[in-house]
Amino acid sequence: MLDSKKFFCFDIRCKDFHSVVLAFLEGDATTADGIIQDHIFPAESFAYTCGRNVSQREIEVTQKLPGPSQDYLRLKLDADPRLRLTHINYGYRRIDSYPEELYIPSSVTEEDLHKIIEFRSKGRIPTVVWKHPSPSNGSLLLRCSQPRTGISGTNRCEEDERLLVDVQADSIGGLAIMDARPKANAVANQAKGCGYENTNNYNSAELNFLGIGNIHVMRECYKVFRRCCLGDKNLNSQDVFERERKKLKWFENAALLLRCSVDIADHLEKKRCSVLVRCSDGWDRTPQLVSLAELMLDGYYRTVDGFIVLIEKEWLSFGHKFETRLSQKKISSQSSPIFVQWMECVWQIMQQFPGGFQFNELFLIKILKSLYSSEHGTFLGDSSKERLGNSQKTLSLWSVIESKRNTFLNLNWRPQDQERLSVQIISDLKCTTNDMNLWRSYYLHWKNYHSSL
Questions:
Q1: Gap between the Cα atoms of 57 and 278, Å rounded
Q2: Is 273 among the residues known to form the active site?
Q3: What would the mean pLDDT of 400-404 be, rounded to a whole number?
Q4: What's the distance, CA 312 to chain centroid?
């Protein structure tokens, strides 16, 4: 009889919190394992399979959507006499992981930039990504990577110093450098020839260490959190969740990210101080912080189009390593849920200020599903340079969203209140671990679905 035969089970825990158990007869287990492995890391990305029938209309829809270039024009960076557009990275010829269009202080020459590229880790120079819209403020938000100060910490680059001192001089409240790392980690990086700025060389600019853990810390926090969500505990119960929340570093780190982002936004808004944000290489904690601060400060990024622009600008064009962090092609020791953690923070803000967003949580969930399904070419690769040509060969997530836009709209959005809400978010956002809620419709979706069968 079938019941007397020996079975082997594969318990598959998916990145999107889906859990599947497959049972095979003893003789089929080895073959089944090979089939599963082939589907985990296929020879060709699923995005290219789905994109074989991409229509010209879908390509045109994607091309019409606003991107980073249009956003820089919206922010009027091109009209600011303090700034200029540099051509140094056109064709990605100098900084593989950076976009082609970069705004820098007008006083900085192309020759200066070549020296700054050598001084900054991975060549990721300080560049302007956002400007406060008020003429009476005008503070700038910049991002970059850590400086290569050498093992002794005494290496200098006068051109780099001059760039930041010029930003400081042109800002009403001066300049604050926000190093996302714990100070101990920044000091440890000196052993690799990197480190942090000696503020004595930067006209005594403010330097803050924010204490956010690295990708390995976040990966381990996420593993514990995921085991909790997929386990036997009933997290649908608020009482159970509140007991478990105290043990989960995932929420502690999300709360820390939000507090640091509020601090950055507060410097820009209330202190009228320009801010430079960076971590080590500037492609993980840095995009988390700058994009959260921009989301808080600028109501445009809380619209459907604006949120897409924010992802395109701060995550895709500035080289967040989606392929590596998501282990798209192979299991990577550098994998980490950095983008998911950022989306977690966005959702937490939405819960406290539901009228501040044009989109609903289905919009966020759709983006996260695409992140892991590889159905679209939007998140393939580790940089914009690697994604060149994908628009002709893969479907864009943004064209799919555009075709179903009404599904993702928030009926409680108050467009007329966005400026006031920006101020309110910065002033009133609750950012302690106990203020963090559980995103049940995402993290518990599959568990609740299977329980209902």
A1: 39
A2: no
A3: 92
A4: 10
C-alpha radius of gyration, the chain, whole number: 23
pTM: 0.93
Q: Do the beta carbons of residue 319 and residue 98 sit within 8 Å?
A: yes
Closest CA to 283 of 327, 316, 246: 316
For 81, the token pair is: 């006499």
Query: What sign does the CA torsion over 117, 123, 126, 127 have?
Result: positive
At which residue do the structure tokens 């608020």 appear? 238
Tokens read off for 7: 């079975």
Structure tokens at 291: 């994009």
Whether the CB-CB separation of 14 and 40 falls below 8 Å is answered with no
> Residue 32 corresponds to which tokens in the numbers above?
């089944």
Q: Are strands 7-13 and 102-105 parallel, antiparallel or unpaired?
A: unpaired
**Pairing verdict, β 206-209 and 175-179:** parallel
Q: Tell me the per-residue pLDDT of 65-121, one tens digit each, with 9 for 90 and over.
A: 788 999 999 999 999 999 999 999 999 999 999 999 999 999 999 999 999 999 999
Q: Taking the CB of residue 413, how many other CB atoms lie within 10 A of it?
A: 18
Rounded Cα distance, 207 and 275, in Å: 10
- CB atoms under 10 Å from CB of 150, counted, come to 13
pLDDT band at 50 (very low <50, low <70, confident <90, very high): confident
Q: Is 33 helix (H, G, I), strand (E, B) or coil?
A: helix
- Close Cβ partners of 71 (under 8 Å, ≥ 6 residues apart): 309, 313
Distance CA 119, CA 114 (A): 9
pLDDT in tens, 133-174: 999 999 999 999 999 999 999 999 999 999 999 999 999 999
Is residue 143 within 8 Å of 121, Cβ to Cβ? no
**Between 249-269 and 338-352, two packed helices, what is the crossing angle to 10 degrees?**
70
The angle formed by the CA atoms of residues 134, 138 and 143, to the nearest 5 degrees, is 125
Residue 216 host element (H or E): helix 215-230
With tokens 């809380």, the residue in question is 302
The total of other beta-carbon atoms located within 10 Å of residue 9's CB is: 10
The type of residue at 268 is L
Of how many residues is the chain composed?
453
Place of tokens 């959005």: 413
Catalytic residue, candidates 221, 229, 260, 279: 279
Question: Minimal CA–CA distance to 203: which of 251, 267, 235, 158?
Answer: 158
